[in-house]
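Changelog excerpt

This revision adds worked examples to the README so contributors can see how folded entries look when concatenated. The first example is reproduced verbatim below.
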Amino acid sequence: DGLYSRFAQADEIHEYFATVDNSTKDYRGDCHVNRRGYASSLDEDRCRIGAIDKAEVDGLLIGDSFANHASPLVDELARRDGLRIADYTMNECRPILGYAINPQCENRNQRLFEALKNSSYRVVILGGAWALSNERELPYNRDLAQQFRDTISLISETGATPVVITRTPVT
């Protein structure tokens, strides 16, 4: 959905991509959501990449559309390492504790990080538009750097290894 919002012909583009065969669609479902889907809960059975037939979920892929763009790579690497990863990404929603670009993202992140506190994941992969920041965000997120450090600390305290996807090319 991140792509469609960038073009005036969003409906036409969405219809075109709906016809394209996406082999991950069968097991990944509609796990990447836009703001309308923010209330969706983490569905480890439906939203999976990597070693999808493995019973135990080893980790999470969380973040915004930048994380979603990295999902094929995460899928391939996790498969090679025998890891099953749950996919929980949402447009415009960086995976940062307390991040509040919009109420939907804030609510989703709050639920996500509460669930993480009681988890036993081995790895949590975070992807986001880290370099993008604008005046619209500043009133809600005064100290993104500290919020990010708090996020990494929380993940580490659960025993999971945080992995940050960095330096996504932006033009």
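The second example, added in the same revision:
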Amino acid sequence: EVQLLAVSKKQDCLAIRMAFAAGQRQFGENYVQEALEKMAQLEDLDISWHLIGALQSNTTASNNAALGVSALLLNTTGTANTAVGTGALYSNTTASNNTAVGYQAGYSNTTGLITAFGYQAGYSNTTGNYNTALGSASLYTNSTGTQNTAIGWQSLNANSTGSYNTATGLN
């Protein structure tokens, strides 16, 4: 099935509402702040939003790379971050030098310094620093623990605040 993606950057909400009324459901933006404003103003519509092209913003953030729907979506001042996958580093606002690859990898990270590879790897990390999560759901519940290394499916999954741990394999 072929679907049309309407590029709505630089268009006002009235134009988007008119396109929606005509049947358009998929809209693309590449200015994060503009996208967030439109999402809030048009939340009553069942729109599927997409970030397209090079990530652009009018914040002070720089040297970031994002690929995937909502990857690095909330970043404002963080620099040198790489996010690949839907929701990767979604909540990152000010943290720098993070790498997350995979669906929702590093999703909750706000100020921590992490490397997360895999489906929801490092998902709950918020402020924990120098953590490495390799594998689906590895270091999933870690929030503030530091200098942890988890390799394997659900490795260190239950760790939330512990530090200086190394684990391979399940749990």
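Reviewer comment on example two: The helical segments are 13-21, 32-41. The CA atoms of residues 84 and 129 lie 20 Å apart.
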